[in-house]
């Protein structure tokens, strides 16, 4: 049996065949739903069910569990992941409007600087061609083309400022780009990149105190957003929690502390899971530090960026503290 799915904002509709996921059917019908990983991990394809119901089953109809990128609380609040959800009735769905930004554009960017911040994280600065007018939003990412048909994705770690863009590249052992190519990159060389991508961004319309939680280089898109808020009189209070393993991993620790001069009510809490005995700061998992500090999360806008495990745990734990899934935004580095 086929089901009709209506995309609420536009009135567009498409048929979903038996056993087909919503995203698969939408793309087949040339309806551009946001998506990235397509296996239920990143949460980019999150839609809201206005009417109807979905299930998470395999193509042969076996009942499955919720995908990792969707918490039970989000499902309860009517959200679904289009790449995994299979309709069990006709649906009316609501999709976040597309970002006001340029379409992904393939271009040749010039390396301006490559600097090791730690043995595992490299600061890469690229200059974009002057004759290409690009509009991108803090929180979005680019794809670096590896030359063999593959690409690697990196969030922008600086606010849009015209010419240059910063990135934090985490070394993946054996990684073609993150370990091998980046070791040979020099200023003046060029990289083929496609930019911008993604729909993780700051929601100025959702004006609430901000709780921003990052692990690892998940800090990059958060930094991009906060840079765009600096010196803005309308900036809401910001609490930034950054989870890392050791002191040596906190590659922007000193710089972040200077952000308090340019952000309205800024609190920075680094949290280490494998700190040395000399560390006097917070220890454990970063999401647990948030819970220890903030017993009520019902009035906050929450941004989560980093490991899928942190994001999955935080969604469940924060919901138990009153966090609304309508005010929670996540970008999972899968
Ligand atoms: Fe559906 Fe990533 S595209 S969770």
Offer a concise description of the structure.
The protein is of the alpha/beta class and 334 residues long. Helix content is 18%, strand content 31%.
Structural classification: alpha/beta
Order of helices and strands: EEHEEHEEEEEEEEHEEHEHEEHEHE
Q: How many whole angstroms does the radius of gyration measure?
A: 20 Å
- How far the N terminus sits from the C terminus, by CA atoms, comes to 34 Å
Describe the fold and architecture:
The protein is of the alpha/beta class and 334 residues long. It folds into three domains: 92 residues, Beta-grasp domain (Ubiquitin-like (UB roll), Roll); 93 residues, Elongation Factor Tu (Ef-tu), domain 3, CATH 2.40.30.10; 123 residues, Rossmann fold (3-Layer(aba) Sandwich), CATH 3.40.50.80. The chain has seven helices and 19 strands. The protein has a six-stranded antiparallel sheet with strand order 11-10-13-8-9-12, with helices on one face. Strand 10 and strand 11 form a beta hairpin. Helix 6 runs parallel beside helix 7. The radius of gyration is 20 Å and the shape is globular. The mean pLDDT is 92. FE2/S2 (inorganic) cluster (FES) binds next to loops. The site of FE2/S2 (inorganic) cluster (FES) has 13 residues, from loops.
Secondary structure elements and their pairing?
Blueprint: E1 3-7, E2 12-16, H1 22-28, E3 46-51, E4 54-55, H2 72-76, E5 79-81, E6 86-87, E7 91-94, E8 105-116, E9 121-127, E10 141-145, E11 151-155, E12 164-170, H3 176-184, E13 190-197, E14 210-215, H4 219-229, E15 238-244, H5 253-258, E16 266-272, E17 282-283, H6 286-293, E18 301-306, H7 308-320, E19 328-332
Parallel strand pairs: 1-7, 14-15, 14-18, 15-16, 16-17, 18-19
Antiparallel strand pairs: 1-2, 3-5, 3-7, 4-6, 8-9, 8-13, 9-12, 10-11, 10-13
Helix pairs in contact: 6-7
């Amino acid at each position: 049996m086929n089901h009709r799915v209506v995309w609420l904002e536009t009135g567009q509709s498409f048929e979903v065949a038996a056993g087909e996921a919503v995203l698969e059917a939408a793309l087949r019908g040339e309806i551009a739903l946001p998506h990235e990983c397509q296996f239920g991990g990143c949460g980019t394809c999150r839609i809201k069910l206005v009417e109807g119901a979905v299930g998470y089953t395999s193509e042969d109809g076996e009942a499955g569990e919720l995908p990792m990128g969707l918490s039970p609380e989000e499902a309860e609040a009517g959200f679904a992941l289009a790449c995994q959800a299979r309709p069990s009735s006709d649906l009316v769905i609501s999709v976040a409007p597309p970002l006001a930004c340029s379409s992904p554009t393939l271009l040749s960017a010039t390396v301006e600087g490559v600097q090791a911040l730690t043995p595992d994280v490299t600061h890469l600065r690229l200059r974009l061609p002057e004759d290409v007018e690009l509009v991108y939003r803090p929180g979005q990412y680019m794809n670096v083309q590896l030359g063999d048909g593959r690409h690697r994705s990196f969030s922008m770690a600086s606010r849009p400022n015209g010419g240059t863009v910063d990135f934090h590249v985490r070394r993946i052992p054996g990684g073609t780009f993150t370990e091998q190519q980046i070791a040979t990159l020099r200023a003046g060389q060029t990289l083929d990149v496609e930019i911008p991508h993604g729909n993780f961004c700051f929601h100025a319309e959702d004006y609430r105190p901000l709780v921003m939680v990052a692990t690892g280089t998940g800090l990059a898109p958060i930094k991009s957003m906060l840079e765009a808020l600096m010196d803005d009189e309308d900036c809401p209070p910001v609490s930034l929690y950054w989870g890392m393993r050791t002191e040596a991993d906190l590659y922007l620790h000193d710089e972040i502390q200077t952000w308090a001069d340019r952000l309205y009510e800024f609190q920075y809490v680094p949290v280490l899971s494998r700190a040395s005995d000399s560390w006097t700061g917070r220890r454990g998992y970063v999401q647990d530090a948030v819970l220890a500090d903030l017993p009520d999360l019902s009035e906050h806008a929450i941004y989560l960026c980093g490991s899928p495990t942190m994001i999955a745990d935080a969604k469940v734990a924060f919901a138990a503290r009153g966090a609304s899934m309508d005010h929670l935004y996540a970008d999972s580095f899968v």
